[in-house]
Amino acid sequence: MPLADSANQPTEVPETRRGDRGGAASGAGVCGSQRPSTCRTIPVRELDDGLVAAWKALRADNPALYSPFFSPEFTLAVDEVRDDGQIAIVERSGEPIAFLPFHRSGRSLFPIGRTINDAHGLICAHDTTIDWHWLLQQLDATGYEYHALFSSSDDAGEHAFGWTKAFLCDLTASDLRYDLWLEQNRKTIFKQRRKTKKLIRDEGPLRLEYASTDPAVLDRLIQLKREQYQRTRIFDIFSVDWIRNLLHLMLTRDGALQGRLSALYAGDKLVAMHMGMQEGKLLHYWFPVYDQAFGYASPGTALFLEIVRQAEANRIDKIDFGYGELPYKWTLNNVIDSVPHGAICVSHAAWHARRLRGGVMQTLKALPGKEWSKRVLRKVHPQFGRGRYH
Fold first, then answer.
1. In this structure, are 156 and 7 located in the same domain?
2. Is the dihedral of CA 268, 270, 271, 273 positive or negative?
3. pTM for this entry
């Protein structure tokens, strides 16, 4: 069935609630009482104020949806620079009970924002579980691929390819200010004070501009990130136009979700930067980078510590690093969770095909001499990995 037909001819299905699934078959849409549920799709640009209000109400009911990637503002911003986003809306008696923003490639669905989105899943109340098989059938899709599923998944282990750590800094967890707690509990941070003193001696006093709106600073961040990707032979995501455009768009955003560009200066030298998102009291730490010329002083760590020291003044009580086991996340966090990566599919064959593809990539990453293979691969196929961002 074409996608447009799915939107225009919703199918009614029974509903149950989490905790009373009653052995519902894969054709059931929502677990709960036996009132009918339907699904329709709209382009993101048709998301109106009423739907935004319903989205926010469902999200407010579900603590798992704390990440700003679950906000309607993020979905709207991505669509402004891509214009291909869609939203599945599950309704009961004409009222939305779940939203799923996504991109489509053929019959495969992907989270809105593709791989720069660090938190995926359905936007729904904490006690509502949607039958994914039914939902995919309504969307004429064979699978929904994710790399960090945070919500709506009692059975996440059944369709996960694997699990990875996700990291958070809860700045309120100790009576000590968080940077002082880190100094007491992390040797790397204890040593940072000496490095920072040397940087100050060499270049001048530190100055943090927490909320810069200077596009030239953002351009410098993007330049340094691109150099970093080239050094590490990782696909340069900033070669993709819409990603650069999204960061510049977020820099101008005002409202519930704002882009947050922070810049650390030593004297008059710009030594480290971070582009993230702030929603309420949560800062999502997204794209940090530092100037390699000052690498001896670990200015990226110095930037983070300055942000922490000014957290109260900037109304921050949590810093979310998202998924991915990078060394600096292990050092700076005090809350660790695990999130699955994988695919939810309508058939075992579709799942195994995606699992095999993902397994091949993981095997290649684990091979001895992978740095050599990365050099060869990037030289032979410089655009390898680009498809993940389209």
1. yes
2. positive
3. 0.85
